Amino acid sequence: MAYNVSGEYSMVHAAAEKGYCDLYATARESLTAIFRAGATQVISYWAPFYGKIFAS
Question: What is the pTM of this model?
């Protein structure tokens, strides 16, 4: 199990607001990396957006 910290969540939102990245694509990459590292469960601020993140 892994926890996706609030600092990373805030950093991704700030970068997306400034146009540096796509919000959901970056969130998807962040969560995918956690699963790729071996976590089978993740506690994350992204949970309410999970459907939007992995829909595309």
Answer: 0.83
Structure letter (DSSP) for residue 44: E
What contacts 49, CB < 8 A, 6 or more positions away?
24, 27
pLDDT in tens, 1-56: 999 889 999 999 999 999 999 999 999 999 999 999 999 999 999 989 888 888 86
